Amino acid sequence: MKKDNQRLSDYYKDHTITYGEMDYHGMDQVIGHINTNHNINFDYFMDVGSGRGKLPLQVAALPNVKKSIGIEVVKERHDDAEEIKNKLIKFKNITDKVVFINDDFNEVKLSDHIDGVTLVWISNLCFTQELTNRIFSKLLGILKRDSIIACSKEHLIDSSIITKIGTLQIPMSWEKNSQVYLYRVN
C-alpha cells in the first residue's frame, strides 16, 4: 500500500521521521577528529536513521572499513538508498561493503552486522530522550571497546562504559554549525 505524505506520520506514529542530513564534509570532519585526536581506526560504520544512504556509501569508500550499515525505518528512504547503491554498481568494491536495513533499530540484531571497532552516527536531534537512551543502551550492549558514537543530542544514561570525548560544530542540512557529541566505549 502506497502511503501519501499526509498519512506518513500516521503510519510511522511511533517514530520520529523528520528528515535532515549531515553533508559529506561534516562526516569527514568527524572521522578526521577521531583519527587525529583519539587515534582510533574503526572497521565498521553504522548510521542509525540512514535516510537515503549517503553516509554509509561515503564511509564504505575508506580502505579500512569492512562493512558500512545504514538502518532506516522509513521504507521510501530505504528504497531510495538501495536505488542509489544499485546505480553505483561500477564501484562494486565500495557498494559490496554497504548493507541497508529497512527496520526499526530496536528490531535489528546488531551482532549479525558488526564485529569490531565501530563508528556509529545517530542524527537524533528530533528523537525523544527516551528513544536516544534506548538506542545508547542497545549499542553499549554490543559495541567493542574504542568504538565511537557520534550524535546530535546527548544521552542521559548513567554508564561507566562510555566516556564523552568531545564536541564538534558540523554543517548539517538544517544548520551550518550543528553540535555533534562524541562518545568512546571504554
Descriptive notes:
The chain is α/β, with parallel strands linked by helices. It has one domain: Vaccinia Virus protein VP39 (Rossmann fold, 3-Layer(aba) Sandwich), CATH 3.40.50. The chain contains six helices and seven strands; from the N terminus they run ααβαβααββαβββ. The chain has a seven-stranded mixed sheet, with helices on one face. The chain is globular and about 45 Å long.
Short description:
Helix content is 31%, strand content 23%. With 186 residues, it is α/β, with parallel strands linked by helices.
Which features characterize this protein?
alpha/beta, single chain, globular, Rossmann fold, seven-stranded mixed sheet, 6 helices, 186 residues, 31% helix
Q: Sum up the overall morphology in one term.
A: globular
Which architecture would the CATH scheme give at its second level? Answer: 3-Layer(aba) Sandwich
Strand arrangement in the largest pleated sheet: 3-2-1-4-5-7-6
Largest sheet: 7 strands, mixed
% residues in beta strands? 15-25%
The SSE string, one letter per element, is HHEHEHHEEHEEE
CATH fold node name = Rossmann fold
The CATH top-level class label? Alpha Beta
Kindly name the structural category: alpha/beta
| Number of helices, where a helix is a run of at least 4 consecutive DSSP H or I residues | 6
Number of strands: 7
Query: Taking all residues together, what is the mean pLDDT?
Result: 86
Please render the helix and strand layout as text.
Layout: H1 5-11, H2 24-38, E1 44-48, H3 54-60, E2 67-72, H4 75-87, H5 92-95, E3 98-102, E4 118-122, H6 129-140, E5 148-151, E6 162-170, E7 178-185
